[in-house]
Amino acid sequence: MRRPGGSLCAAAALLCLLGCGARGAAAKSAQPDSAAREVTLKVHVSDASTHQPVTGATIEVFTNQTSFSSEVSGADGNAFVKFSYQMGTLLIVTATKHGYVPNSAPWRPARLPVFSSLSLDLLPERSATLMVYEDIVQIVSGFQGSRVQPRVQFQRRTLALPPNTTYSNLTAHLTTGTSAWELDLFPYLQGLGGNGTANNRRFELTPVTAVSIHLLSSDSTEIGVGGPIYVTVPLPADSQLKENDHIPVWRFDPKLD
Fold it and tell me: Is the Cβ–Cβ distance between 54 and 97 less than 8 Å?
């Protein structure tokens, strides 16, 4: 996840992390103490709501911001990923599928295993109310006016509609997480600070809330937004935040996972 500078300008396929405090810089990966060996990692993917296996999820293994191995989950939700591993290397295992919030987990065993397994639950994206006005566009979680709801707002002129697409073809999703259980269903919270060089510092983040926003056309194409996006999210009562507290915002970038 990268911390945005200035106004928040991004494609509509956006995952924001709000109120993330850094626990501290992540330790540098230990130098490998042995030659690389082949490891088989079993990844089980299931739906966080129904607990049923998720078929067709893409499993990717990242190191140093680069995906080097991938598989697709079968009918039983399992994928078997084989790769060469050197002790001390931090890997990030990611599961993604259309209609779900991406999820990921770190993997760095204390001893070199011949076989290992982990499970990732995917949170289904939640449909949202889309309101298009003359000047602005709003995406609201739930129904307008029911209570204070998470919402997204941006200028209508910044919406980049594809050719032959009208507002009636659009579908919005707005998924939020505030409880510890919900936040565990969002990607591994590692922040990357710096200027994009090799000297970037990595942080383990402690989030107050997380937000996933998607605006799609009828063929599931992601719609871009070419301007600032304003996100309003009710904070949990136990957040201990006070009025005028500074809350940093972090944007999820799958290339940095």
Answer: yes
Please state, in angstroms and as integers, the Cα–Cα distance from residue 235 to each residue in 95, 96, 178, 181, 247, following that order: 27, 27, 8, 16, 11
The most confident of the ranges 12-21, 138-147, 195-204 is 138-147
What is the full DSSP assignment across 191-221? Answer: EEESSSSTT-EEEEEE-SEEEEEEEE-TT-P
DSSP symbol at 114: S
Do residues 226 and 155 touch, judged by C-beta distance below 8 A?
no
List of long-range contacts for 194-203, beta carbons under 8 Å, 24+ apart? 201/25, 202/25, 202/26, 203/22, 203/23, 203/24, 203/25, 203/26
> How much is the pLDDT for 234?
79
Amino acid letter, 79: A
CB 155 within 8 Å of CB 229: no
Contact assessment for residue 34 and residue 87, using Cβ atoms and an 8 Å cutoff: yes
**pLDDT of 16 above 80:** no
pTM over 0.90: no
What does the alpha-carbon distance between residue 15 and residue 210 come to, in Å, rounded to a whole number? 8
